[in-house]
Each structure stands twice: as C-alpha cells, then as structure tokens.
Amino acid sequence: MFIFGSILSPWAWILILVLALVLFGPGKLPELGKGLGKAIRGFKEEMKGKEDQSVE
To answer: CA–CA separation, 37 vs 39, rounded Å?
Structure first.
C-alpha cells in the first residue's frame, strides 16, 4: 500500500514537487522537464514505429 492511499493524490504530487525543488533547485527544473518531455515523445514515436513494423 502507498503511504497516501493513492500515488495520484494531491498530497503525493505536492510532496514530489517539494522534493524536486529541494534536490534540483528552481533553475534546473525547466531543463529537467524539457528533457523528460523529449524522452516521453521519443518513446511514443518508437512504440508507434514498432506497431507499424509489426502490421506489415
């Protein structure tokens, strides 16, 4: 079981945000977010490419 009952609870997100601010600082967070977004987009594109290859 999770401490907060659900990982998607507002308190869990607040805790994650506070920890990120403490660990990385406010100046580094936009850069980290941009990198995470690129990684997610790349993963989605690769998964879509694999689906297209398996259909052929």
So the answer is: 5
Q: pTM of the entire structure?
A: 0.54
Domain 10-55: give its CATH architecture: Up-down Bundle (1.20)
Domain ranges of the chain: 10-55
- Residue 48 region by backbone torsions, left for phi larger than 0, else alpha for psi between -120 and 50, else beta: alpha
Helix or strand (DSSP H, E) at 40: helix 29-55
Q: Is the pLDDT of residue 5 over 70?
A: no
Q: Which residue shows structure tokens 């907060």?
A: 4
